[in-house]
Amino acid sequence: MVDSYRIVFSKQQTIKLFAERKEKGRSWSDHLLYLVALQEATKSGEELIMENIVKYAQPESQALIISQYNRFRTGYLAHAEEIVSFIQELEDETVGYEKNRNEVVNSLTDTRRCHTCGQVGHIARYCRDKTNPIESGRKKALVKEKTISGHFLLPRVMI
């Protein structure tokens, strides 16, 4: 009775299934379990699992996978488990680092005040209120240049 409902995969279907990339939402451990189940269902070799992990990984992690890959090993499943655990640990560390980095950046606030207008968030150099000529505690005298033959010259700042 089980044989009457058994699914048989053709070679083309097997190749197509093993040539799919890992989904970004799926963890590497889940992807390895999926590949093992697919290998058992299609009755194909374990080398297809290793080939899928190395060739069809996301571009961000493919260089790391290739650096860990040893093509001369014959224990394909054990080697695949080692690579998957290595990449999963790196991704977990990276996600934790990005979360902590964002928390640190968000917790810092700018407490510097502008010497010109007294508002928090910018300094006198970038203040839009230019009524007070004092910038950063130093008084600057503006000397206007004469215009020569209708050309406008910018004022020269003397300290």
From TrEMBL:
It comes from the Eukaryota. The keyword Chloroplast does not apply. Coiled coil: none annotated. Signal peptide: none annotated. Keywords: Metal-binding, Zinc, Zinc-finger. One of its GO terms (molecular function) is zinc ion binding. InterPro entries: Znf_CCHC, Znf_CCHC_sf. Residues 112-129 form the CCHC-type domain. This is Mitochondrial Carrier (MC) Family putative. It comes from Albugo laibachii Nc14. The gene is AlNc14C2392G13229.
